[in-house]
Amino acid sequence: MLSRTIKRRPLIALAAALVLASPGLALAQAKMKVAAIYTVPFEQQWVSRIHKALKAAEARGEIEYKATENVANADYERVMREYATAGNQLIVGEAFAVEAAARKVAKDFPKTSFLMGSSGKVQAPNFSVFDNYIQEPAYLSGMIAGGMTKTNKIGLVGGFPIPEVNRLMNAFMAGAKETNPKVAFTVSFINSWFDPPKAKEAAFAMIDKGADVMYAERFGVSDAAKEKGKLAIGNVINTQDKYPDTVVSSALWNMEPTIDRALKLVKEGKFKAEDYGQYSMMKYKGSELAPLGTFEKKIPADIVAKMRAKEKAILDGKFTVKVDDGQPKSSSK
Length: 333
Prior knowledge:
Layout: H1 2-21, H2 23-29, E1 32-37, H3 45-59, E2 63-68, H4 73-85, E3 90-94, H5 99-108, E4 113-117, E5 127-130, H6 135-148, E6 153-158, H7 163-179, E7 184-189, H8 196-208, E8 213-216, H9 221-228, E9 231-236, E10 247-253, H10 256-268, E11 287-289, H11 301-315
Parallel strand pairs: 1-2, 1-3, 3-4, 4-5, 6-7, 6-8, 8-9, 9-10
Antiparallel strand pairs: 10-11
Helix pairs in contact: 1-2, 6-7, 6-11, 8-9
């Protein structure tokens, strides 16, 4: 036993010497530290997709993940600095209302990688941007909505009329027009990212005026549709399990391609200022139309056939959904 212990000692000493000689070896064993800052709750649909992708990386053992929800705009810069000072290698968040502050922090921490939801440009060397470019499945969901309305009136309730929301609404409306040229739209914005009661009231007002299909860009809209026995099209997440007789389909956003690319580049020391927008598109599996599920047999077969043909054309690169960031307007027949 004693001789075995003596033999082991040189090996332990050698291992310790190797770690001291090359500290990078010890660092390689440590998990990457990632932090996220959200101005809304984790369950808010947009943020939930980012949170889900980062939690998946955490579950795989790739990262050590910390996140703060419901951060007020006035506190955003402080929280961001705290995470950067704490040695997080990648910081993720949404900079839409705090662009100047977020970019200032990135300048002050040039060795930290930042991946922020933004409609602005990248900022060298370390400030990358992403966005929910899911206009392709939004268009497909619009095609379904056009085929499901009986009153030819569709209501759309959005958060704020910013590019990220506008492009999805415009794509949805264009898709609905393709399958139903007679359709008219009522568009409303609640000027909040998370106010389900306000969104619900806006939806009720549209339903009272004849809308029988609602585009649920915000939480609360599907509740109104359910209560009134109308239909809804979901956005960003699939809520059909909660509204099996109401939500026909949804345009899903998958953040995994974006997050996984950023993690890989940070790990390799190759992260640089880059626009990640394209990784939200269907060809990268960053978005998709949700399974039709409970509505599989309720949607007219010709509408499903047209939608599937368009879906294939998008994936084959034969049809491009226009990116229209202009504010959508209500229309009349």
